[in-house]
Amino acid sequence: MAERMVGKQAPRFTMDAVLADKSFGKVSLEEIMNEDKWTVLFFYPMDFTFVCPTEITAMSDRYDEFEDLDAEVIGVSTDTIHTHLAWINTARQDNGLGELKYPLAADTNHAVAREYGVLIEEEGIALRGLFIINPEGEMQYQTVFHNNIGRDVDETLRVLQALQTGGLCPANWRPGQKTL
Fold first, then answer.
1. Separation between Cα atoms, residue 73 and residue 78, nearest integer Å
2. Of 75, 95, 111, 157, whose CA is between 20 and 30 Å from 54?
């Protein structure tokens, strides 16, 4: 049976990544927490596919909004950093990513995808999982869905803003509206 993650400490991770400047480096939940920032961690199945670039570039195009909310965005798949870099170096009109404003991490040993409950073991790829973690490392939000459906960046931003109010947000709450 699946174990609840929301309200508990998020699994810690350090992964190799292609950083926004296209250099190779590491991303770490502890490091983001030490900077007193929120983490928006999302998993996608694999590089050089069809739905993935639409959501990865949509998140990058809106990255400044996440940054304004003191949130770091990290995309993760089970592909290597070298495959990530090749995809980033491919133009958007050629099904590539072009410039990205946040890192793509490589979970090549599948450990992080497994810990977050999104690994499809028999295929070695991740489901589309999205996790929002507060600066104290507590999992605040998780959603996992079928790989045929891309994420909604507006909804991700709305949920992040709702969580940051610290209040009770009713159905269809939007930033600027009163909480309960």
1. 17
2. 111
**Backbone dihedral angles phi then psi of residue 81, each to the nearest 5 degrees:** -65, -30
Instruction: Please give the Cα distance from 161 to 88 (Å, whole number).
Output: 29
- Token readout for 37 is 């920032």
Q: Which amino acid is at 91?
A: A
Catalytic residue list contains 52:
yes
Element (H, E) at 131: strand 128-133
On the question of pLDDT at 2 being above 80, the answer is: no
CA dist 37 → 15, 30, 85, 132, 172 (Å) = 18, 10, 26, 11, 25
Write the CB contacts of 156 (distance below 8 Å, at least 6 apart in sequence). 40, 59, 130, 132
* Pair 41, 102: CB distance under 8 Å: no
Residue 67 and residue 69: Cα distance in Å, rounded?
A: 5
Q: Of 52, 56, 159, 169, which one is the catalytic site residue? A: 52
pLDDT tens per residue across span 5-51: 999 999 999 999 999 999 999 999 999 999 999 999 999 999 999 99
The Cα angle at residue 86 between residues 83 and 91, in degrees rounded to 5 = 140
pTM, entire model: 0.96
